[in-house]
Write a structure and sequence with these properties.
It contains 15 helices and 3 strands. With about 350 residues, it is mostly helical.
C-alpha cells in the first residue's frame, strides 16, 4: 500500500463517524450514508456497503432524493465483489429509466468500462450526452464534462474515429486544462505500454495502480464528496465577530473574506482538486455544531470542521457557478460580473 493511501482501518473509522452523524441528522442521511458506504467499499467491506444502499432504497422516511444514483453505486459495488448478474440487471434498469442527471450514467458507464464491456459503456455515455447536453451551448455544465471525457476515452480504446461529441470533448478539455496534454494523448491506449519496465508482472502492477488512482478520481467526480469552503453572509459575519471576537484574525473584513474564498477555490481548481463547493454558515447552526463537538465557537480550527460537516450533510453548492448564473456571494449580479472576473486578486 502506498504511504499516502489511507488504510482500510482509517476508512472504517470514517464510515463509523459518518453513520453517527447520520443518526444525529436524519434529514441529511442520504449524502451521509452514501459517503459511509463509499468508505466501507474502500475498506473492503463491500457487503456492509450494499446494506447501506439497500437501506436508502427501501426507506420511506425520508424517501431517497436520487434513487438512480444510489442504484448505480449499488450496482458498481455488487459487481466488484462477484455479483455480476445482479449488477447488470440494475444497470439495465437504470438505462431503461433514462435518468436526467449525469451521476448515475457516469457510474454505470465506468463500471462497464472497468469490466471490459466497452461497447455497452460507450452506448451509456452516448445516451447520457444525448439526453443531457446541448452541443450548441457555449458553456458545457461542469457536471457533464466527465461524460464527454469518458466517452472519448472509451472510443479511443475501441479504435473509433472522432465524431462531433469527441470534438466537443477536445474543446472542453482544452478550455479547462492548461497542462498542454490533449485528450488524444491522455487517452492513448499505447501509453500503458510505455509505463513501468519490460517485465509483464511489473507492468501489470503499474496498470493496476493507475486504474486504482483513476477509479478514486472518477469516484470523486461522481459521488457527493465536495471539498467545500465556508461562506458567511455579511450580517451573519458581523454578528459572529461581535459575539466571538477570537475569530477576528480569520475575517479581517467581509470583502476580504469573499475575495479570499474565491481565490482559495481557484487555487484548489488549478491543482486539479475536483468537486469544489461552498457552504453557507449560520450562527445557530455553528453554535449547535460547537456544542455537539464539546468546544467553544471561539475557535478558528472549528470553522473548517463545521464546513466539512455541512458539506457531508449535502449542504454544499457546487463551484464555480455558470458565468451567467447569480454569483455565490449573494450580491444578485452574475458570477462573471462579480467574483468570476478573470483578474480577481
Amino acid at each position: 500500500m502506498r504511504p499516502d493511501t489511507p488504510s482500510p482501518a482509517d476508512h472504517t473509522t470514517e464510515a463509523e463517524r459518518l453513520l453517527r452523524t447520520a443518526a444525529q441528522y436524519p434529514e441529511d442521511q442520504e449524502p451521509l450514508l452514501l459517503q459511509a458506504a463509499a468508505h466501507l467499499e474502500l475498506s473492503g467491506d463491500r457487503a456492509r456497503a450494499a446494506t447501506l444502499y439497500d437501506q436508502l432504497l427501501t426507506s420511506t422516511a425520508p424517501v431517497a432524493e436520487n434513487p438512480p444514483l444510489i442504484k448505480a453505486l449499488k450496482a458498481a459495488n455488487l459487481w466488484e465483489y462477484g455479483h455480476e448478474a445482479e449488477a447488470r440487471a440494475i444497470i439495465d434498469g437504470i438505462r431503461a429509466a433514462a435518468p436526467r442527471t449525469p451521476e448515475p450514467w457516469d457510474i454505470i458507464a465506468e463500471a462497464l468500462e472497468q469490466h471490459d464491456d466497452l461497447q455497452a459503456s460507450h452506448d451509456c455515455y452516448t445516451t447520457a450526452l444525448t439526453l443531457l447536453v446541448d452541443p450548441s451551448d457555449d458553456e458545457i455544465p461542469y457536471t457533464t464534462q466527465s461524460l464527454l471525457a469518458g466517452r472519448h476515452r472509451v472510443r479511443r480504446m475501441l479504435g473509433k474515429a472522432h465524431d462531433n461529441w469527441d470534438a466537443l470533448a477536445d474543446r472542453t478539455h482544452t478550455s479547462t486544462h492548461t497542462d498542454g496534454i490533449s485528450l488524444d494523448e491522455l487517452h492513448d491506449p499505447k501509453r500503458l505500454w510505455a509505463l513501468g519496465s519490460d517485465n509483464p508482472a511489473e507492468l501489470k502492477a503499474e496498470i493496476a495502480r493507475l486504474r486504482a488512482e483513476l477509479g478514486s478520481y472518477r469516484a470523486a467526480l461522481s459521488r457527493p464528496f465536495p471539498v467545500a469552503l465556508l461562506h458567511w453572509p455579511a450580517a451573519d459575519l458581523t454578528e459572529l465577530l461581535a459575539t466571538y471576537p477570537g475569530l477576528q484574525p480569520e475575517y479581517p473584513s467581509h470583502e476580504a473574506h469573499l475575495t479570499r474564498l474565491e481565490s482559495s477555490l481557484r487555487e484548489l481548481a488549478a491543482t486539479g482538486t475536483p468537486n469544489l463547493g461552498i457552504v453557507t454558515g449560520s450562527i445557530p447552526s455553528y453554535e449547535a455544531f460547537a456544542a455537539s463537538e464539546r468546544t467553544t465557537p471561539d475557535s478558528i480550527p472549528l470553522l473548517a470542521e463545521y464546513a466539512t460537516t455541512l458539506a457531508a450533510r449535502g449542504k454544499a453548492t457546487p463551484w464555480p457557478p455558470a458565468k451567467t448564473a447569480t454569483c455565490w456571494c449573494g450580491s444578485g449580479t452574475t458570477y462573471r460580473d462579480c467574483h468570476g472576473v478573470p483578474d480577481l486578486a
